TrEMBL record:
<feature type="domain" description="AIG1-type G">
    <location>
        <begin position="7"/>
        <end position="128"/>
    </location>
</feature>
<dbReference type="GO" id="GO:0005525">
    <property type="term" value="F:GTP binding"/>
</dbReference>
<comment type="similarity">
    <text>Belongs to the TRAFAC class TrmE-Era-EngA-EngB-Septin-like GTPase superfamily. AIG1/Toc34/Toc159-like paraseptin GTPase family. IAN subfamily.</text>
</comment>
<dbReference type="InterPro" id="IPR006703">
    <property type="entry name" value="G_AIG1"/>
</dbReference>
<dbReference type="InterPro" id="IPR027417">
    <property type="entry name" value="P-loop_NTPase"/>
</dbReference>
<keyword id="KW-0547">Nucleotide-binding</keyword>
<dbReference type="Pfam" id="PF04548">
    <property type="entry name" value="AIG1"/>
</dbReference>
<protein>
    <recommendedName>
        <fullName>AIG1-type G domain-containing protein</fullName>
    </recommendedName>
</protein>
Length: 156
């Protein structure tokens, strides 16, 4: 069980972390809501089976841009998740709902948490959520280049 991989979902409040976790689980387990304030306030996790493997999916409270207290709290939550599942992958969620734009507040949150946690490329997955349908075929490639430029140093 200790070698089971964790999927730790991070990102600003409201980008759709709990919504995405439910899609991966294929069950409506984690509360997600249209709400003026943050919705998830404590870390929860559920086990999922994908292909031949079992994973634990961690639904973590949202980061809030440049809020050092929240970044510190999240650092603690990420630490606890890594203790439970040392082989964990970070899924960092960007909100793509504003016409696919990569928002400054998501970039700032990523940089703060990456500075605290030193993610490595092989354990990091970047996810742009809530994209409009029918976006141009170049969007994915252009976004990859833009994220490489905006996010700063990520360890190999
Ligand atoms: N249609 C649609 N709705 C989405 C999508 N992603 C998120 N939502 C909705 O957006 C709202 C916010 O999503 P949540 O999953 O609660 O956001 P969160 O990142 O978990 O937010 P916190 O728990 O506050 O950190 C909810 O009403 C979701 O149902 C998406 O890709 N498509
Ligand atoms: Mg949530």
């Amino acid at each position: 069980m200790g070698s089971q991989c964790g999927l730790i979902i991070l990102g600003n409040t409201g980008v759709g972390k709990s919504y995405l976790a439910n899609i991966l689980l294929d069950r409506d387990v984690f509360k997600h809501d249209c709400n003026p304030g943050s919705v998830t306030h404590a870390t929860e996790f559920e086990d999922i089976h994908i292909g031949e493997s079992n994973y634990s999916i961690f639904n973590i409270p949202g980061l809030i841009e440049a809020d050092q207290q929240r970044i510190d709290l999240n650092k603690c939550e990420i630490h606890k998740a890594f203790q439970l599942r040392p082989n964990s992958i970070i899924i960092f969620v960007f909100g793509g709902g504003s016409g696919g734009r990569i928002n400054d507040e998501d970039v700032i949150a990523f940089r703060s948490i990456n500075k605290a946690y030193d993610f490595t490329r092989k354990s990091l997955l970047l996810f742009v959520n809530d994209l409009p349908n029918g976006r141009k075929s170049e969007y994915d490639g252009e976004t990859k280049i833009r994220l490489e430029t905006l996010l700063g140093k990520i360890n190999n």
